[in-house]
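Quick illustration, no need to memorize.
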Amino acid sequence: MTRHYNFCAGPAALPEPVLVRARDELLDYQGRGLSVMEMSHRSAEYVAIAEQAERDLRDLLAIPDDYRVLFTQGGASLQFAAAPYNLLGRGGSANFVHTGIWGKKAMAEARHLFGAAPVAASSEANGHTAVPRQADIALTDDAAYLHYTANETIGGLEFDYTPEAVRPDGTRVPLVCDMSSSILSGPLDVSRFGVIYAGAQKNIGPAGLTVVIVRDDLLDRARADMPTLLGYKTLAEGGSMVNTPATYSWYLAGLVFHWLKHDIGGLAAMEAINRRKAEKLYAAIDASDFYANPIAMANRSRMNVPFVLADDRLDKAFLAEAEEAGLLNLKGHRSVGGMRASLYNAVPEAAVDALVDFMGDFEKRRG
């Protein structure tokens, strides 16, 4: 069997040791005579799996004791509705930093549901090639919280700092972050956030699971008209098992957390690997007149690297030859075109080396 290098933006590559262990346990989980997929989510065996996954995630991110970790469903997109439902119960508005397509979608959902979603800052004027600076972020007087997207998966734009969420009167409000494509890529100070949410299918595990990290003092701020299954407090009190959870995705996420802790050695070690991978690819792009990336140096994503060819008539040939070389899923998002290499945690450094070599060879032959 030959496994190729997968640069998909999501669902994304999973660590091979995780896949091997999942394969070995698929039919018979640790001698229990059944698969994890067949277990009751309330059985002692499955509760142990779920609890271990949460402990490992807490250890990796050093999550403070006054935060709850929720394993829910619906993807990050459902959190576009869940966050305002949970945080606007005392009035006010959800403020947004708009840096690309996913931030825009979050903003649009809040506006659709509640009629207002003030833009505290935007990178639209520069074509989403650099994030707004802290001095450019202006919250409204009634801001209940500030939402931003840490890493725009499609545009390859990543924040190089954590914004401060302060209203004009000096009142600090919760910071809410969509961290779907950057969570677990390096150490993180969770205490600076009110809510962090992330779809699993980038750095956490397979699609079908969403992780939400929420500070305890925010659990009583929900709107009365909120659908029950969106409630952070309800999910926290029910151990994320108010209804049947995505059990197999949760199990696989636990295996990923174990891999990060014990095989990689934690998030500082993971960050060093990710930095090397990104630096290699950006260096190849910058050294060439054939490839280009438009993002400001300080805001280049470590996880998602978009690039274009000097002649877009060669795009199809590039993708076809890349696939023949075992380099998969390099086509850019349909909304922007070009190429995109997603370098999530499970993408090995050897994959980037192979991509850089291929790009150099393609340029020599086609440039």
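Residues 266-366 form a domain with the Aspartate Aminotransferase, domain 1 fold (CATH 3.90.1150.10).
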